[in-house]
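In the design runs reported in the main text, the only information available to the sequence generator was the tokenized backbone. The following block is the verbatim input for one such run; it is reproduced so that readers can re-run the procedure and compare outputs position by position.
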């Protein structure tokens, strides 16, 4: 059975934000950035909204037709990664949760480990509604972009935020870049890179 996927637009913004907020409430990194269930329920959605707005403006959000899974992709140019990004993490923190240093810190730490020098597709995040996880929706969302990457000879990059997601990405051809990223007094993330596969 195929999974119907379409590009999300501005009219889908609230749906995407709600979906990401629900999908990442129990994520180890989200729990570290927003410690405490009540605090996270009250605040986490603002970070998901900031991410959604950035990707709607500069990238692509793929959404399953039934609205239960989405993937946020950003194209990264060969020399784009480190240019003009110094204020970005601070701006996100100011708009999301000014008193929470971890909102800015996570952005700076992931920025520091992000490979530079080669153009690639960056899977910023992928969210699947908890009731639909394990059904292959994430694989379908990622697979359509990876197929295009293979055709175009373009690498892909992501940071896995859990051991479970790391396993999925490894099955799709991603490998660890250098070493894991250990968040201060927090969980581990896995920066992962995928070279395009040569097609016959």
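Verbatim output:
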């Amino acid at each position: 059975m195929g999974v119907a996927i379409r590009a999300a637009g501005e009219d889908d913004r609230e749906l995407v934000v709600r979906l990401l907020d629900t999908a990442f409430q129990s994520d180890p990194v989200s729990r570290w950035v927003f410690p405490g269930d009540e605090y996270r329920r009250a605040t986490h959605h603002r970070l998901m909204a900031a991410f959604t707005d950035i990707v709607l403006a500069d990238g692509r959000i793929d959404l399953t037709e039934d609205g239960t899974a989405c993937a946020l992709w950003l194209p990264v140019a060969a020399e784009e990664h480190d240019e003009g990004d110094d204020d970005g993490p601070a701006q996100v923190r100011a708009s999301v949760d000014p008193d929470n240093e971890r909102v800015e810190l996570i952005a700076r730490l992931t920025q520091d480990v992000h490979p530079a020098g080669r153009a690639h597709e960056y899977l910023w995040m992928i969210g699947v509604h908890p009731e639909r996880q394990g059904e292959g929706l994430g694989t379908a969302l990622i697979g359509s972009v990876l197929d295009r990457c293979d055709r175009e000879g373009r690498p892909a990059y992501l940071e896995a935020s859990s051991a479970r997601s790391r396993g999925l990405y490894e099955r799709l051809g991603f490998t660890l870049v250098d070493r894991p990223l250990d968040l201060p007094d927090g969980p581990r993330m896995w920066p992962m890179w995928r070279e395009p596969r040569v097609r016959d």
